[in-house]
Amino acid sequence: MERRQLLKKSAFAVAAFAFSKELFASEAERGIQKSFEGSNGGIIKLSSNENPHGPAESAKKAMIDAVIISNRYQFDTNAQLREAIGKLTGHNKDNILLGAGSSELLGVVTSWTAYKKGNIVASEPTFKVWLPAARKLGLPTKLVPLTATKHNDLNALASNIDTDTKMVYLCNPNNPTGTVSPQNELEAFVKTVTAKTILLMDEAYTDYYDSPSMAHMVNENPNLIIAKTFSKTYGMAGARVGYVLAHPDTIKELSSFMAWANAGPSAVSMKGALGVINDQAFVDYVKAENIKAKAILYKGFNDLGIKYIESFTSFVYFDTKTYPKNVPAVLQANNIIGARSFEDNSTWLRISIGTVQEMTKVVEALKAGAAKA
């Protein structure tokens, strides 16, 4: 590769990591969290869709054991993890590119897309960790409103593709709404979009309810990229392990936009992922507890007359229009943070699902707040 081309790609890669902090927590929320952490009251943090039950014992043991080998580059571990992922998804290691969480890889795909020049089509609202990078790279984005039921509008997304569209981004199940599209509609959407351009599908939450994955289509489709992560059901958000599934030729293209392909996760993180990837008992436990905790929140919302969307994820989107007080303020007064908006001038908020005990406290706080109104 020529020096000029390499430098140009490096500039794109640097810009791709300029993610907006507001996607994870506001400055005010971080200030509240800091003040709570300095008190004796403790804090219930329900803002970033983190797994409250992880990491699993299988992952913790593997990570502790891996500390001693952290002085060595883990080429073998890297290959082992990609092979293990391939067994899980029905692919081989050439279909897989590792990153420090799927967020790093969303940035890589954005850089790759921006290098071609053009625009991106995506839903609004959705997970937009890649959007600030796209804007910094001069990549216009067409944001397509959700349907009235707050589902991704697949037909509208497809119809917004033009000759300059270089990528369509689809988060399914969608974040922040928790909605999912049917498999037959998704498969038709994949075929329609990839006949024209790249489709990046973010499947961070498919494991919670075995939501339909389009991973089975990547081997025959170089224009399809699937992003997945160990942050959610596997409980390793802080360990930073994610991956994309794609056609081997596409993986090679994406790898050329990384200083060192597959080097994002550390030795410790990769060993943790290897330790938990076959721990189905832990995943089943996480999924069952998520359902229990969510049921408590749903009942509370029903009792309070709060409208919500039944979620296929580890968070719930709900409408505060009928609640007599400011929901975030009521929760913050009880050392609970996380309920926040993702739409301008909207009464809809998202809250992450914590433990059964934590969601019980959320409901208690909301009911007490309503009673004092």
The CATH architecture assignment of the largest domain turns out to be: 3-Layer(aba) Sandwich
User: Which strand order spans the largest sheet, edge to edge or round the barrel?
Assistant: 2-8-7-6-5-3-4
Low-confidence stretches: 1-40
Radius of gyration: 21 Å
Portion of residues in beta strands equals: 5-15%
> What is the domain total for the residues?
2
Please report the distance between the alpha carbons of the first and last residues.
Answer: 66 Å
Query: Total helix count?
Result: 13
| Average pLDDT for all residues | 90
Structural class: alpha/beta
Shape: globular
> What order do the SSEs take from the amino end to the carboxyl end, as H and E?
HHEHHEHEHEHEHEEEHHHEEHEEH
Work out the number of β strands: 12
Oligomer description: single chain
CATH superfamily of the largest domain: Type I PLP-dependent aspartate aminotransferase-like (Major domain)
Name of the top-level CATH class of the largest domain: Alpha Beta
- Percent helix range: 40-55%
CATH fold descriptor of the largest domain? Aspartate Aminotransferase, domain 2
Keywords:
373 residues; alpha/beta; Aspartate Aminotransferase, domain 2; 2 domains; seven-stranded mixed sheet; three-stranded antiparallel sheet; 13 helices; disordered N terminus
Outline:
It contains 13 helices and 12 strands.
What does this structure look like?
The protein folds into two domains: about 5-55 and about 280-370, Aspartate Aminotransferase, domain 1; about 55-275, 3-Layer(aba) Sandwich (Aspartate Aminotransferase, domain 2). The N and C termini lie far apart (about 65 Å). Helix 4 packs parallel to helix 10. The protein has helices spanning about 5-15, 25-35, 55-65, 75-90, 100-115, 130-135, 155-160, 185-195, 250-255, 265-275, 280-305, 325-330, 355-370; strands at about 45, 95-100, 120-125, 140-145, 165-170, 200, 225-230, 240-245, 305-310, 315-320, 335, 350. The strands form three sheets. A seven-stranded mixed β-sheet has the order 2-8-7-6-5-3-4, sandwiched between helices. It has a three-stranded antiparallel β-sheet with strand order 9-10-12, covered by helices on one side. A two-stranded parallel sheet has the order 1-11. The protein is an alpha/beta fold. The longest helix has 25 residues, at about 280-305. The chain has 13 helices and twelve strands. It is globular and about 60 Å long.
